[in-house]
Amino acid sequence: MEYVYAALLLHSVGKEINEENLKAVLQAAGVEPDEARIKALVAALEGVNIDEVIEKAAMPVAVAAAPVAAPAQEGEEKKEEEKKEEEVSEEEALAGLSALFG
Question: Which pTM value belongs to this model?
Answer without folding.
Answer: 0.56
